[in-house]
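To the wet lab folks,

You asked to see what we're planning to order before we commit. Fair enough. Below is the target structure as tokens, and below that is the sequence we designed to fit it. If anything looks off to you, flag it before the synthesis order goes out.
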């Protein structure tokens, strides 16, 4: 059996809490049909914390919104695939049943609390609204639970904060309110979509520690979406790297940082400063731009930017397969198999250096060099 065959029939050691299979999401636009998510497949076990990493526009947030049925309509739609949560196919649920599950079993912490919270409704009304939507409970009991939730997320003077409005709180306090709303009904899965993007570094650390603590205390699984590898390094057990609407590498956090095997992951790691190295190194940016999702290229979407690209990369689209061919595929948990979608993966030495051993540069860099040479020759009046 080949690596591709194994990739097509993954297995796990126990039934996952969330199972996404070949998810495809499209948006209609004036420029054409945008293929935002292209065949994403992954699992999340109960109590597991995973990170989803990639640059803006790679499909991270769209995947989360599709899982929860929150895609902007009518432009956005799920074009194919399955989303199974605790044995229930979410894409087949009618809106009322999905609304009942959302917030109660799966909750989401949105990116910007200032736009997610209603500015003209008190914090208490917004927090208890979630509780009343799913439970028949007395107002005084809901108030007590709201106070307890704000205390849990570290908001001082919770009684006073409940009577206030979002604009009266700092960015960090607003994000804590969003976390309290997400925890109101003790969900089994929390999806945190860039929860620290709008916050300064000190507050970011506090919010991440809060998410980690409440997940540990409640036993909820966490799906942390971010563009920052530094965030997932200390927060997650497993990482999925996305590019152009696909997962291009997935592994346990320790394995991925120690042995990145996809050129895009190598590029992400080499373009951020590292504090764990005795000697500094030059940052190596990823050349070029992400592909146009209305006209995806033939073959590997990363090939035009990739220094490791070979001829096959331009014609054949790689599937997610084990780094070590022939191994049994485990898709979730601490024993998850390291898998990549790449025809010519970097070696460990190349991954550490950030460039191929041959010294090759990407097609984008080479094209830029040729243009610069031609321009210099033209200025000097020399033949090209």
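Sequence we intend to order:
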């Amino acid at each position: 059996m080949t690596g591709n065959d194994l990739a097509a029939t993954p297995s796990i050691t126990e039934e996952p809490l969330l199972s996404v299979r070949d998810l495809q999401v499209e948006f209609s636009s004036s420029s054409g049909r945008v293929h935002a998510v292209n065949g994403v497949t992954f699992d999340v076990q109960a109590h597991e914390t995973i990170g989803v990493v990639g640059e803006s526009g790679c499909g991270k947030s769209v995947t989360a919104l599709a899982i929860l049925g929150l895609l902007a309509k009518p432009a956005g739609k799920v074009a194919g695939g399955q989303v199974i949560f605790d044995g229930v196919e979410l894409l087949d649920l009618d809106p009322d049943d999905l609304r009942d599950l959302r917030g109660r079993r799966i909750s989401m912490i949105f990116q910007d609390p200032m736009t997610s919270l209603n500015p003209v409704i008190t914090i208490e009304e917004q927090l208890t609204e979630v509780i009343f939507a799913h439970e028949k409970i007395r107002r005084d009991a809901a108030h007590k639970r709201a106070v307890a939730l704000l205390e849990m997320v570290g908001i001082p003077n919770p009684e006073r904060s409940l009577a206030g409005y979002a604009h009266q709180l700092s960015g960090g306090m607003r994000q804590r309110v969003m976390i309290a709303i997400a925890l109101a009904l003790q969900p089994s899965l929390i999806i945190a979509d860039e929860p620290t993007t709008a916050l300064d570094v000190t507050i970011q650390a506090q919010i991440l520690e809060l998410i980690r603590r409440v997940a540990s205390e409640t036993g909820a699984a966490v799906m942390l979406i971010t563009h920052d590898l530094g965030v997932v390094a200390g927060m997650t057990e497993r990482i999925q790297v996305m590019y152009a609407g696909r997962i291009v590498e997935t592994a346990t956090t320790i394995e991925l940082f120690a042995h990145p095997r996809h050129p895009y992951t190598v590029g992400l790691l080499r373009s951020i400063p590292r504090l764990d190295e005795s000697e500094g190194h030059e940052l190596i940016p990823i050349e070029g731009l992400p592909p146009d999702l209305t006209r995806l290229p033939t073959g590997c979407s990363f090939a035009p930017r990739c220094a490791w690209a070979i001829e096959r990369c331009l014609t054949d689209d790689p599937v997610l397969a084990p780094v070590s061919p022939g191994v049994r595929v485990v898709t979730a948990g601490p024993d998850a198999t390291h898998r990549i979608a790449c025809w010519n993966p970097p070696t460990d030495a190349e991954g550490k250096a950030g460039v191929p051993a041959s010294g090759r540069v990407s097609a984008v860099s080479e094209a830029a060099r040729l243009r610069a040479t031609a321009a210099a020759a033209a200025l000097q009046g020399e033949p090209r």
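Structural context that might help your review: The first strand starts at residue 18 and ends at 29. The chain is about 35% helix and 20% strand.

Thanks,
Computational group
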